[in-house]
Amino acid sequence: MRLPLPQFATQRRTPGHFAEVVETSTTQFLAQCLDPDDLSFPAMPPFGSWVKAMDEESGNQIYAVVYHATTSPIDSVHRARALGLSLQELREQQPQIFAMLKTEFNAALVGFQPPQTANGKRPATVTYQYLPPRPPQVHQAVYYCQPEEIISFTDRLDFLRSLLDLNNTPVDALIAASIRQIYSVRQADRDWLVQVGRTLSILLKDDYDRLQVILRQLHP
């Protein structure tokens, strides 16, 4: 028997607003993806993708890289079980399933952009590639970074050291995935990629094998 989905009042989202911060710390945040308007699961952000969130109190635009994502039941007591149905069959026979699961992701902070100036314009070229004074707070909106933001931020490569210092995550794979996305956004800028290789060779000068592992993953 098909059960009706609960109805919730929804507000119009800002374009690009796809997730919301639910936990936060000095070095990272945990965000939950917003439910789509149709019967489907929230789109999980790609590993190594670039996202941003605002710290409304300081006005800083904070940049982060996604390093872990999960889809799990909202109810932590009961696990999801295999039903042997396609997505279309789930929509027809078990539509409540889509309201019982959540998609969350962790993002590591890599830098920030200062608040708008007195004339209301945010200086596009002023970014800092170190931890912000404070992270985005709980319930702040999360957006994907625009291509021009990624290009501007990655003109400098200090963020690579921040990623190398991460713990409890597949750092080498994360760096490679992030670089692949940036390289695509930069429309295969080979000069930039060569600079990345040089920077990594300096940062990993005592670990040639690790450097080679990362470099071998740079081609999709």
How would you describe this protein?
Strand 3 and strand 4 (60-73) form a beta hairpin. The protein is an alpha+beta fold and 220 residues long. Helix 4 (171-185) packs across helix 6 (208-216). 26% of the residues lie in helices and 23% in strands. The model is unreliable at 1-10 (pLDDT under 50). A six-stranded antiparallel beta barrel has the order 1-2-5-4-3-6. The chain has helices spanning 87-93, 147-153, 159-164, 171-185, 190-203, 208-216; strands at 17-24, 28-33, 50-55, 60-73, 101-113, 141-144.
Average predicted confidence as pLDDT? 87
- Percent strand: 15-25%
* Helical content (DSSP H or I, runs of 4+): 25-40%
The number of helices is 6
Secondary structural class: alpha+beta
Q: Mind summarizing the main beta sheet?
A: 6 strands, antiparallel, barrel
Low-confidence stretches: 1-10
N-to-C CA distance = 45 Å
**Overall form:** globular
Total count of strands? 6
Order the strands across the largest sheet as they lie in space: 1-2-5-4-3-6
Assembly context of the chains = single chain
Rg (C-alpha, Å): 20 Å
Order of helices and strands: EEEEHEEHHHHH
Question: Keywords for this structure?
Answer:
220 residues, alpha+beta, 6-stranded antiparallel barrel, 6 helices, globular, disordered N terminus
